[in-house]
Design brief:
It is built from ten helices and 15 strands. By secondary structure, the chain is an alpha/beta fold.
Length: 282
């Protein structure tokens, strides 16, 4: 490790790694913890100094880090990394809620993924987290009337991460999209806070409707791998959708559904199964 990076690390008062970090992170505790973890990893893998410095240790905060990581991953011969980073930085500056949501999402991944003991791998490598943060920027662009730029980000997201989220969809905070490959979220879909979604999930239309035509997923819902939710259906708060299910009608709050078509088979033990990630059919 270089003397310069060691001096920076020694000068920072790092928080307790076991501290309970608030989802909206008003004190910046999540970012300080990310830096601490990156510093520890650098001590183990000094060959990665340039990588960790450029992605985390030289960055000014989570927003700066995300703009750098996403712009590098989503750049193409048609749109440069520098131009994308400028667009992402502008979006973060215009709407601080994007960064707040990014912190809440990162906390959600850290809390719910049993394979994850630290924050920084999700920030650097988890494509579900990356796709969600790219969507948040595209959503800001869409709402600002910059639809072409928003669709460009959506297109690159789909090509790079295998996740297709329409920029007009409305998604809350504290969301985890685990593994993420094959996830599709339609234009008029709504996902409220604290929802967990596994890979190959579709929130789509029936193919014959126009207007408001996509699912509304309320807070605390857990959606298992491969589930297809089709049409303007209401998924009540705290519901659980079993893996591989096809949901074509409303699901009551705090009920477990499974099958093709999905039917109620039980009641989750938790009021928010998304937080416990318990996929048992109860």
């Amino acid at each position: 490790m270089s003397k310069g990076l060691k001096a920076v690390a020694d000068a920072v008062a790092w928080p307790d790694p076991e501290a309970d970090l608030p989802p909206n992170d008003p004190t910046g505790a999540v970012w300080r913890q990310v830096r601490r973890e990156a510093q520890r990893e650098l001590e183990r893998e000094p060959a990665l100094e340039e990588f960790l410095d450029s992605t985390i240790l030289s960055r000014q905060g989570l927003e700066d880090s995300l703009a750098w990581v996403l712009s590098h991953e989503l750049a193409s011969p048609m749109v440069s990394q520098a131009r994308l980073q400028e667009i992402f930085d502008e979006a973060h500056a215009r709407d601080p809620a994007i960064g707040d949501a990014g912190r809440a999402d990162l906390q959600a991944v850290r809390d719910r993924d049993p394979a994850l003991e630290t924050y920084f791998p999700a920030l650097l490598f988890f494509k579900g987290y990356h796709a969600l943060q790219a969507y948040r920027i595209a959503h800001r662009l869409w709402n600002d009337g910059r639809e072409l730029a928003a669709l460009l980000v959506q297109s690159r997201m789909a090509q790079v991460y295998g996740v297709d989220i329409h920029p007009a969809a409305r998604i809350g905070t504290g969301i985890m999209i685990d593994h993420a490959t094959g996830v599709v979220v339609g234009e008029t879909a709504v996902i409220e806070d604290d929802v967990s979604i596994l890979h190959e999930v579709t929130l789509g239309g029936t193919g014959k409707e126009t207007g408001d035509r996509h699912p509304k997923v309320r807070a605390g819902v857990l959606i298992g791998a491969g589930a297809k939710l089709l049409g303007n259906v209401e998924i009540g708060a705290g519901a659980k959708i079993g893996a591989g299910s096809v949901v074509l009608s409303d699901v009551p709050s705090h009920r477990t559904v499974v099958g093709v078509p999905a039917e109620v088979v039980g009641t989750p033990e938790s009021d928010s199964p998304a937080l416990t990630m318990d996929h048992r059919l109860i």
